[in-house]
Design brief:
Belongs to the phosphoenolpyruvate carboxykinase (ATP) family. This protein is an alpha/beta fold and 493 residues long. It contains 12 helices and 28 strands. The chain has a domain of 333 residues: Phosphoenolpyruvate Carboxykinase, domain 1 (3-Layer(aba) Sandwich), CATH 3.40.449.10.
Length: 493
Amino acid sequence: MTSIEIHDEIHTQLHETARVDYRKPIIHNASVPVLYEEALKYEKGTALTDSGALVTDSGTKKGRSPKDKRIVDEPASRNDIWWGPVNTQMTENAFMVNRERAIDYLNTRERLYVFDGFAGWDPKYRIKVRVVCARAYHALFMNNMLIRPTEAELASFGEPDFTIFNGGEFPANRYTTGMTSTTSVSINFDRHEMVILGTQYAGEMKKGVFTVMHYLMPKAGVLSLHSSANEGPNGDVSLFFGLSGTGKTTLSADPNRFLIGDDEHCWSDDGIFNIEGGCYAKCIDLSPEKEPEIFAAIRFGSVLENVVYDHASRKVDYANSALTENTRCAYPIEFIPNAKIPCVGGHPSNIILLTCDAFGVLPPVSKLSADQAMYHFVSGYTAKIAGTEDGITEPQATFSTCFGAPFLVLHPMRYAEMLAAKMQEHKADAWLINTGWNGGPYGVGKRVALKYSRAIIDGDIATREKLAKLFVEHFVSYADKASKEVIAAGPQV
């Protein structure tokens, strides 16, 4: 299929399924240079930095709006969904009102952008995702965050499995049933669609796709996880669980290990696979000394959100939080030099639970038994970090089950039971790492530097067997007078 034929097919699909006006320019899977040019020409607040990244502004919303997330209550998915504060019900009619409002807005724009990509690196489980939006910034963001199709894959893409209509520049009607503000992020599993109104924050699209995978994958027997993952030289895989700001992205970008992904993964019968085609790193206080891999990834093709920069030199001031604490950069995963492409790996041998303890009570590292691992996984204790959500300005202690409650669709125990079974089957070790405060709570103590957390992880996991053997060998001299209980309390090699 030629590019013209692909273009015509998309025009037809969009017009027939959503009555999108196809008489205007619809820019489909444009190259990075084209999207740069479009953003610089048509979007206020967009510029180039001295490193070649595109810097842009997400408008009023600088983080996700979880209280405005809705899922349509419809017969096919009703009995599966974990209804409550995380998954608030929405009527089919209210969804269609929002959908109509978003498409009406998109039809008023002079040009539209469409990006077709995949979620999930394993071809057996990946889904086809289509994004329809009015900002080149949003198209470039999803070009980085979804898995980019080859020319052949794009030619045979066909109908998407899921479509995002992003009309985020236009507000929701507050008088629509179920709306609590002018922001609405709504998902309809029956229609395989997501509609965004009242927020231009690109992270809503990323997490919307993640939410969809949290619904679809367990139903296919695959565990979806809010985690990063990397692989050692010998093929050993580690999973890092944690909410935004706990160090998932930084700790997984280890120069001595291969990066599988920084945020969203699935664990199938074959092993681990990344959901995304890129990384979404926090940039506050970023430096080449602290996070060299991430710093170097901010170049031509990357999207910087809401950072402060010098308008003459175009140099970014990563320490400046005047716009938000939640400064971000989205870049293709191949921008990390040691990324493993394709982003798949074997079964994990280490499960690392990252927690940002704002009280400064938890130790920097704890080895967990299987039962303790499940307890902490279900508890998901951490602190919300400033900027990760709208309105959060300083750390707040919270419990986020499965280290990702805002994105869960099914009941948390569904994911927890799947994780327990996989850990047992593949004999994975579990660790609790505190990347929060040490020596006292927030305001008194000091936050554990991520370089120390990485050293702890590398040291504890890599040398635990060696140290355990030294303990056992040393204790042999005293074993004849020691009770069975005391001997059993030592390391088990």
